[in-house]
Amino acid sequence: MRGTLLLPARPLLRRWLQRLALLLAVLAAGGAFADEGPLRIGSKRFTESYILAEVLAQTAAPHLRQPPVVRQGLGNTAIVYEALRSGSIDLYAEYTGTIALEILKSPQPLTREAMQAALRPLGLGLAVPLGFNDGYAFAMRAAEARRLGIRTLSDLARHPGLRLGLSNEFIGRADGWRGVAARYGLPQTPTGLDHGIAYDAIAAGQVDVIDIYTTDAKIGHLGLTVLEDDLAHFPRYDAVVLHRLDLPRRLPQAWAALQKLEGRIDEAAMIGMNARAELQGAGFAAIARDFLAAGGAAPAAPAGASAGFVAKLLGPDLPRLARQHLMLVAASVGLATLIGVPLAIGVFPHLRLRAFVLGLTGLLQTVPSLALLAVLISLLGAIGTLPALIALTLYSLLPIMRNAVTGLAEVPGGVKQAGTALGMTRRQNLRLVQLPLALPTLVAGIRTATAIAIGTATLAAFIGAGGFGERIVTGLALNDRALLLAGALPAAALALLSELLFEGLEALLRRAR
Known about the structure:
Elements: H1 2-31, E1 40-42, H2 47-60, E2 69-71, H3 77-86, E3 91-95, H4 96-103, H5 112-119, E4 124-127, E5 136-141, H6 142-148, H7 153-156, E6 164-167, H8 168-172, H9 174-184, E7 191-193, H10 195-203, E8 209-213, H11 218-221, E9 224-226, E10 239-244, H12 247-250, H13 252-259, H14 267-278, H15 284-293, H16 309-313, H17 318-347, H18 351-365, H19 369-380, H20 385-409, H21 413-421, H22 426-456, H23 469-478, H24 481-512
Parallel strand pairs: 1-2, 6-7, 6-8
Antiparallel strand pairs: 3-10, 4-10, 5-8, 5-9
Helix pairs in contact: 2-15, 17-20, 17-22, 18-20, 19-20, 20-22, 21-22, 22-24, 23-24
C-alpha cells in the first residue's frame, strides 16, 4: 500500500524540484546585480585625494544599482591601505612611487609589471593610470631662494640654519625625509606640520622650506620656488587606481566605466581642480562633476566668494554629522558604564587588584588616539564605527571606574555597619546603602567620560566613522578656517549641552538625597 502511494509521487516530486531549481537559478541571475554590494571608495587626507575619490565615484555611479560609498579623508597611506587590504574599501587613488617604496617596501622604484606581480598575492592590483605625475619636492619663498642662491637640494644642504617644516607622513616615509636627507646629506632637523597648514607657515615666514606635491595649487599662488632634485632621488609618482582584485568581476560595468578615465587627467587639469578647492572654496563633488562634464578639462570656478561661515556651519550635512557624533558618544559611554561600574565594584574590596586595574585603564589614557585607532584597524581588519567605538569606550573607562571606586570609598564605615546590623547581606548592603550614596560621585565620572568622548570622537573621522570631525579633517586639508570652526563649534556646543544635562541630573540627585 505504501508503495502504490509513493510511485505516483516521485514524478511530481521530481518536477517540483526541477521547477524549484529553475526558479532559484532565475532569482540568482536576477539578484546577482543586487548582491554585488556597494562600491566603496576611499581617499587620503589631502585635497587631490578628495577630488580624485569624487571623480572615481561619479564616473562609476551611473553603472551601479546603488550609489557608491565615498569614505573621504581616512588618513595617511598606512590607514587607507589597511582599509583596502581588509576589504573596508574597494579602491582608492594611489601613486606608483608610494606603492613601490612605501607599501611594497622595495628599496628602489619598480615597474608596473613588477608592482602587479607583488600586489597579486595580496589580493590587490593597480590599474587605470590617470595621466599625471604628482611627485614630492621641496619649495622655498622665491625671494629667499634668490638671496641665498639656492636652486637645488644640493644647495639646500649648505644652509643648515634653514627651518624645515615637513608633513608628518613625509618625515616618517622611507622615500621621504630619511631617504632624501641621506642622499643629499641634509643636516637640518625638520618640524612636523600638517600639509595644509605648511603653506600658511611658509607664507608667514615661520618656516623656510616645506615639502610639496608638484600639483599643489598654492605653489604658484604664493610664488614659491621648487628646488631641483638634482640627484634624481624622488621616483615618479604617477596616479593610478589601487583596487581589490575581485572588483572587476563583482562590478564589471562600473569597472569598464572607470577604465575610460585612463590618461584623461594631466598635470594642468589636476592643478586646476586643486586650485578650485583650495583657492576658490569649491566643493569636491562639484569640482569632479564639472571636470567630467567638460570632458577632461578643469573649468574655472564662477566668480564670487566661497560659501560663508554660516552656510558651512548650517550645511545640509549637519543633521547627519550630529547623529553620527551623538551615536559614537552615547554608545561608547554607555558601554564603558556597563563594563566599568561592575568591574569597579568587583575590584573595590581587593586593594592590590584595584590598583592594578585602575593603573591599566590609566595607561590606556596615555596612548595617543590616532595610534590606538591605527592599532585597532590592524587588529580588527576594519575601519569606521567599530574601531572608533572601541577606542572611545577604552578612553571612557578610567573616569567612570575611578569615580565609582572613589564613591564607594567615601561611604562612611558606620553606615555600612548599620546596614549589616539591620540584617542585610553583603549584596543588599551594596545595592541599598553603598551604591545610592556613591551615585553622585559615579555620575560625575560619567559626566567626565562624556566630555572626553565628545572631544575625542572628532578624531573618528580620520578612519571614516563620521561625526563633526569630518569638517575638521576637511578643513585641515584645505586650510579652511571657516570649515574648521564649523566642525569645532557644534562639538563644543554638544559638550556644553551635556554639561547642562548632567548639572541638572546631579541637582536632582542632591535633592533626592
